[in-house]
UniProtKB/TrEMBL annotation:
Enzyme class: lyase
Lyase in keyword set: yes
Name of the protein: 3-hexulose-6-phosphate synthase
Signal peptide limits: none
GO molecular function: 3-dehydro-L-gulonate-6-phosphate decarboxylase activity; hexulose-6-phosphate synthase activity; orotidine-5'-phosphate decarboxylase activity
EC number: 4.1.2.43
Organism whose genome encodes this protein: Alkalicoccus daliensis
Gene3D superfamilies named among the record's database cross-references: Aldolase class I
One GO term of the biological process aspect: 'de novo' pyrimidine nucleobase biosynthetic process
Listed PANTHER family: 3-KETO-L-GULONATE-6-PHOSPHATE DECARBOXYLASE SGBH-RELATED (PTHR35039:SF3)
C-alpha cells in the first residue's frame, strides 16, 4: 500500500511546507485538481523537480480532450494522471494510449460511476482505478471495506481509495491491500501534518 498525499485547497507555499514535513512518510504525491487549476502545469513541474523519487499523481479529473490533457500532465512530470470514469470510451482509450506512449499511467476515478461501468473500463484496458467518495458526498457517506466489493471480479485491476480517509479508516482498508490509500484533509488540515502522515503510514503495517 502506498500512501498518496492529496494536496487540495492549498497555496503553493502550503504545498511546499506540507511536503517538506511529510516527505518521509509519503510515497505518492497527488497534486489536487484545485491546485492544478490555480497554478497549471507549472506546479507539477516544480513538485516533480523537488521530489523526483516520488510518484507524482496529477489529479486532472480529465473528462474530454483526454489525449491532450494526459500528454499535458505526463509531459509536465506526472507519473499518473486521472480521468473520470464517465468519460466517453474514446477518451478513456486515447488517455491510455497516450500514457503508454509516454510511459505513464492513467488512474480512472470511479466517483459516481455505476458498477456496470467497471466491466466496460476493464474491456477498454483500464488497470488502475480510484474508488472515491467525493468531498461533497462525505457528509452522507463514509469509507468502509465495502467500497472494494465492485472490484472483486477484477483481481487484475489495481485500486486506489479516497474520500475522507483518516487514521481510523486504515484497519478497514488494510485487508484489501489497495495500491494506494489517498489521504488529504486528515494530513493537510491538521496542526501536525508530519505526525499525522507518520501515524497513518505506520498503521499500514500494523
Ligand atoms: O480527489 C479528491 C477530491 O475530489 C477533491 O478534489 C481528494 O483528493 C480526495 O478525496 C482526498 O481528500 P480527502 O477526502 O480530504 O482525504
Amino acid at each position: 500500500m502506498n500512501l498518496q498525499l492529496a494536496l487540495d485547497r492549498l497555496s503553493k507555499e502550503e504545498c511546499r511546507h506540507i511536503l517538506a514535513e511529510t516527505k518521509n512518510a509519503v510515497d505518492w504525491i497527488e497534486i489536487g485538481t484545485g491546485v492544478i487549476k490555480e497554478y497549471g502545469m507549472e506546479i507539477i513541474r516544480e513538485i516533480k523537480k523537488d521530489y523526483p523519487e516520488k510518484t507524482i499523481v496529477a489529479d486532472m479529473k480529465t473528462c474530454d480532450a483526454a489525449a491532450h490533457e494526459t500528454r499535458q500532465a505526463l509531459e509536465a512530470g506526472a507519473d499518473i494522471t486521472t480521468v473520470m470514469a464517465f468519460s466517453d470510451d474514446n477518451s478513456i482509450r486515447t488517455a491510455l494510449e497516450t500514457a503508454e506512449e509516454l510511459n505513464g499511467r492513467v488512474m480512472i476515478d470511479l466517483l459516481n460511476a455505476p458498477e456496470e461501468r467497471i466491466a466496460e473500463l476493464d474491456g477498454l484496458g483500464v488497470r488502475l482505478v480510484s474508488l472515491h467518495i467525493g468531498k461533497d458526498q462525505q457528509g452522507s457517506r463514509s469509507i468502509s471495506g465495502d467500497i472494494f466489493k465492485p472490484l472483486a471480479p477484477y483481481p487484475h485491476m489495481k485500486a486506489a481509495v479516497a474520500g475522507g480517509i483518516s487514521l481510523d479508516s486504515i484497519p478497514l482498508l488494510r485487508p484489501h491491500q489497495p495500491e494506494a490509500v489517498i489521504v488529504g484533509s486528515a494530513i493537510t488540515g491538521v496542526q501536525h501534518p508530519k505526525k499525522a502522515a507518520e501515524k497513518i503510514k505506520e498503521a499500514f503495517s500494523e
